[in-house]
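task queued by scheduler; priority normal; single chain, no ligands, no partner chains; default sampling; output format set to C-alpha cells
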Amino acid sequence: MIAVTSERLEHLRMFAKLERDTILEHMMRDGRDPAEAVAEVPGVDEFVVTALRDEMLEDRGRMAEYSMTRLAARGSGPDAAEHRRNADRAEFALLREIAEQVPELTAAVWRLSGSLDVDDE
C-alpha cells in the first residue's frame, strides 16, 4: 500500500515536471523537432506513476526480480516472451493498485498499461 496525500502528489508532480522538462530540453538541444519530442516523452503523471511503481517494488523487495525479468524479456531466448508477459502482469497489478489508491492518476495508469500484455492465453 502506498500513502499519497495531496501534498505528496503535488511534490511528486513537481519533480516529475522537472524531470520531463530536463529530458525535453536535452532532446531539443540535440536537434530534435520539439513537436516530436513532446509527443515521445511521457506526461508528468506518467512519470509520477512510474515513480510510485518503483517505490512499491522497492518496498516489497521485488525491484531486483522485476528488473531481471524485464532484462530477460528483452533477450532473444526461447523464454523471452514468457518473461515479458510475467513482468507485464506484475506491473499491471501494481498499476491497478496505484489507480485504486490515487484516483487522480487513473488516466495515466491506463495510458501506461496500454502497452502491457496482460491477456491470459
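post-processing summary
- DSSP finds six helices and no strands in the chain.
- The mean pLDDT is 93.
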